[in-house]
Design brief:
Elements: H1 4-16, H2 21-33, H3 37-47, H4 49-55, H5 63-98, E1 112-114, E2 126-129, H6 137-148, E3 155-160, E4 162-164, E5 167-169, E6 175-182, E7 189-193, H7 196-199, H8 207-237, H9 263-277, H10 301-305, E8 327-331, E9 336-341, E10 344-350, E11 361-370, E12 383-387, E13 393-395, E14 412-413, H11 416-425, E15 431-435
Parallel strand pairs: 2-3, 5-10, 8-15, 13-14
Antiparallel strand pairs: 1-2, 3-6, 4-5, 6-7, 8-9, 9-10, 11-12, 11-15, 12-13
Length: 469
């Protein structure tokens, strides 16, 4: 027996989007389950090529019956178009009378994320991120595409990330639900269902969509690191970087630890987007507060970050969660350090701490140094990041057995591969929150580590580090 709620939802959907063939097909399937063959056949007629693709055959109606339905449908469409034209004419007349001058209407749009650094109209892939709470993920994705219209990328994939306690896991189990290819400007769509549970059907094996999604995800990580670096450079130096090399300088000005494929190509686009979206600084940095170089603002650091708007892409249709710089959260109870972007856990590592000796609160990375002991296997390992010019730091260790335990004098200890990835992923100035009980206890590492190619000398042999190891 069909769910009446599903029929009601789909009926409302096709009323709003009468040209959506997938919506008609799904409504027809529901009517078929309910034993309403007449209504089902009408819906399948509207579904057109989508019906043929999913049923692997032409519509079962005879050609004579089919032609009669087509003729009737054409008449109905002409009537609807006539009524719509009259309504539009009335609205335009009212607008001309009542609206003095030009204006814009802000509309809430769903998150369709293009490849970072590439204008949305030319991006080879867009991604609709479907929240886990959505009971009808395909309907959610279709609504997003419909609202975006021709602004959406030619190829779009609907994806659902693994979630836990309100966090989305970037490196967790991500399901691709559907791919949609807009074949021409007229709006003809080629649809492939990729997840059996989402469509209640036999999904197609679209490996091409998976490969494109992986490339998109890798480029997204590059974008997050670059945009975060530009943001913190402006805070530190009260000016915008003119080129990528301004971010990649020798110690102690090494905002970025190097560069990655694609960074130079996307730099200008990301910079322009940040300059347009951030509030005017009047010489006071993006937060609008009087802050000295290497100093956080007096207020809550996250408040200043809410001034950022859609960093991702040139004309991206985004939710605000995707517009925040990368941050670090250290969960003392779970012995975990996570790099987060909004509510997304980008990376998560097991760390060694010092129990009550590790302070709670908000800090920032005031210094980044390679081989703080003059070599990569010393007591502080191969990388070190000072917290707010104190004796506390995030660093490597020569005692890997202590990672996951409370054996330090207050610092955050990390394994070699983890601290080296973190060093490359987060720029100078990144905010670090140390607290209790906020992160999932486990996280999956990606198949390939995030890595920047070093371009400058980031060592500091003139200093003997005395962090509270």
């Amino acid at each position: 027996m069909e769910d009446p709620k599903d029929i009601f939802y789909l009926k409302q959907f096709v009323k709003r989007h009468p040209g959506n063939q997938m919506g008609w097909y799904l409504l027809g399937k529901q009517y078929l389950l309910a034993g309403k063959d007449g209504k089902a056949n009408y819906c399948f007629l509207q579904a057109g090529e989508v019906y043929d693709a999913f049923e692997n055959e032409s519509h079962p109606l005879s050609e004579n019956q089919l032609q009669q339905l087509r003729d009737w449908d054409k008449k109905q469409k002409k009537k609807r178009l006539a009524r719509r034209a009259v309504a539009i004419a009335i609205l335009l007349l009212l607008a001309a009378i009542w609206i003095p001058g030009k204006g814009t209407v802000d509309q809430e749009k769903e998150a369709i994320l293009p490849l970072p650094g590439i204008p949305i109209g030319t991006a080879p892939l867009g991604v609709v991120v479907v929240p886990l709470k959505e009971l009808r993920p395909i309907g959610y994705a279709w609504n997003s595409l419909t609202r975006a219209g021709l602004e959406a990328p030619k190829l779009t994939v609907a994806a659902r990330m693994e979630e836990e306690n309100g966090w989305r896991k970037w490196t967790g189990r991500t399901k691709l639900l559907m791919s949609v290819n807009r074949e021409d400007a007229a709006g003809k769509l080629e649809v492939a269902m990729l997840d059996r549970d989402a469509c209640s059907c036999e999904p197609s094996g679209d490996s091409a969509a998976s490969m494109l999604y992986e490339k998109w995800a890798s480029r997204q990580e590059t974008h997050w690191t670059l945009s975060s670096a530009i943001y913190h450079y402006e805070r530190k130096y009260k000016k915008w970087p003119e080129k990528l090399d301004d971010l990649i300088r020798p110690y102690p000005h090494n905002v970025l630890a190097g560069e990655r494929n694609g960074m130079r190509e996307m730099f200008a686009d990301v910079l322009n987007k940040l300059r347009n979206d951030l509030k005017p600084t009047n010489g006071k940095g993006v937060s609008g507060t009087d802050v000295q170089p290497d100093q956080p603002s007096d207020g809550d650091e996250t408040d200043s970050m809410t001034s950022i708007r859609s960093i991702v892409g040139t004309n991206g249709i985004l939710d605000q969660e995707w517009s925040k710089p990368l941050e670090i959260i250290v969960d003392k109870a779970a012995h975990r350090l996570a790099v987060v972007q909004g509510n997304i856990i980008v990376r998560s590592y097991t760390v060694g701490l010092g129990g009550d000796e590790t302070p709670e609160g908000s800090f920032y990375i005031s210094e980044k140094v390679r081989n703080p002991n003059g070599r990569d296997d010393g007591v502080f390992g191969s990388r070190g990041m000072t917290l707010s010019n104190t004796l506390y730091a995030i660093h490597g260790t020569d005692d890997p057995a202590s990672v996951g335990k409370d054996k330090s004098l207050g610092c955050v200890r990390m394994n070699k591969d983890d601290v080296e990835e973190l060093f490359d992923l987060v720029p100078l100035g990144t905010i670090v929150h140390i607290k209790n009980g906020t992160l999932p206890s486990k996280s999956q590492q990606p198949a390939e580590r995030f890595k920047l190619e070093p371009r400058q000398n980031e060592t500091n042999p003139a200093k003997i580090y005395e962090w509270l190891t």
